[in-house]
């Protein structure tokens, strides 16, 4: 791979807020050692401050929320003769058995596969960047963009429950109600999104100079 210099090597910092690339010298720093963007005035950072600690904290919190999200029931379905509380997994099985395999696949992907992959990818990115690994740099940068992209779609499962609730409300003889598991699932999604936002992808490229 060609050794293009990093902005940090050239004394350049890009502004998080307005995107302006600034030349920042140490003597530009204000009283508290911070350099402000000349265009929008926000504080410039070569790397997001405490990016590792924040991302780990949010990721671990998300993982902890993911446990009750799976153990607690997310949805109650009731009809004239029975009441059923479903967790994510039992809901997937029930959808499959009751003849909606397409919906079962969507729910399984959105609520089991995607969160698990996100935990795994973020942990790999954090550990490999922390150890300044120069392994598969462009691929790791792409992985990060993928995690950010699928972040928007992770609420799909909550929407499925909301949709089913609304649909079944029209049928007077049966009932679908969201249960507390959905709240924990929503928290998992929000926390993993915050985790990927607090990770600074520029940290990936700091590993480029090691073992070259
Ligand atoms: Zn700015």
Task: Describe this structure as you would to a colleague.
With 212 residues, the chain is mainly alpha-helical. Helix content is 53%, strand content 8%. The protein has a three-stranded antiparallel beta sheet. It has a two-stranded antiparallel ribbon with strand order 1-2. Strand 1 and strand 2 form a beta hairpin. Helix 1 (51-71) runs antiparallel to helix 3, helix 2 (88-97) runs antiparallel to helix 3 (101-130) and helix 3 packs parallel to helix 6. It binds zinc ion (ZN). Zinc ion binds at residues 15, 17-18, 20, 37, 39-40, 42.
Key features?
7 helices; 212 residues; 3-stranded antiparallel sheet; 2 domains; two-stranded antiparallel sheet; Butyryl-CoA Dehydrogenase, subunit A, domain 3; binds zinc ion; elongated; mainly alpha
Q: How would you briefly describe this protein structure?
A:
This protein is mainly α and 212 residues long. 53% of the residues lie in helices and 8% in strands. The strands form two sheets. It has a three-stranded antiparallel beta sheet with strand order 4-3-5. Strands 1-2 form a two-stranded antiparallel sheet.
Query: Any idea what the shape is?
Result: elongated
> How large is the share of residues in beta strands?
5-15%
Helix content: 40-55%
Q: What is the CATH first-level class name of the largest domain?
A: Mainly Alpha
Structural class: mainly alpha
Separation, N- and C-terminal Cα atoms: 10 Å
Number of helices: 7
Q: What is the strand arrangement across the widest sheet?
A: 4-3-5
Order of helices and strands: EEHEEHHHHEHH
Number of domains: 2
Outline the low-pLDDT stretches: none
CATH topology type of the largest domain: Butyryl-CoA Dehydrogenase, subunit A, domain 3
The gyration radius over C-alpha positions equals 23 Å
> Main beta sheet, described?
3 strands, antiparallel
| CATH arch. level architecture of the largest domain | Up-down Bundle
